[in-house]
Design brief:
Order of helices and strands: EHEEHE
Helix content: 25-40%
Strand content: 25-35%
Number of domains: 1
Number of helices: 2
CATH architecture: 2-Layer Sandwich
CATH topology: Alpha-Beta Plaits
Strand order of the largest sheet: 2-3-1-4
Shape: globular
Largest sheet: 4 strands, antiparallel
CATH class: Alpha Beta
Distance between the termini: 19 Å
Radius of gyration: 13 Å
Length: about 100
């Protein structure tokens, strides 16, 4: 499994909270069309204007197929700018 981790900075607290709430509402319907993901986590530090987006993918092929769609997505106004993107192998993923 792979994790695509993007870091965002320069957002407003209200915009980050609103983006998180919107994503929470859309989550039950699954990933956006064209994204072959097994899960997603958004970590926010609203008062500091930062967020981390972690998308999980079962394989490199799934990530590669999803990347054009992810790159074409426009973030909501006020969430800041992406400052980094890294892909990690998932060593362990435990949910309790």
């Amino acid at each position: 499994m792979l994790a695509r981790v993007t870091a965002w900075e320069g957002g407003s607290a209200d915009a980050l909270r609103a983006a998180a709430a919107e994503m929470q509402q859309r989550a039950p319907s699954g990933p956006p069309e064209g994204v072959v993901s097994t899960g997603f986590t958004m970590l926010v530090e609203p008062d500091a204007g930062r967020a981390l987006m972690i998308g999980l993918f079962a394989s490199e092929a799934d990530l590669d197929a999803s990347e054009p769609v992810l790159q074409s997505m426009s973030p909501p106004d006020g969430v800041g700018s992406m400052v980094s993107k890294h892909v990690y192998d998932v060593g362990i993923d435990v949910r309790m």
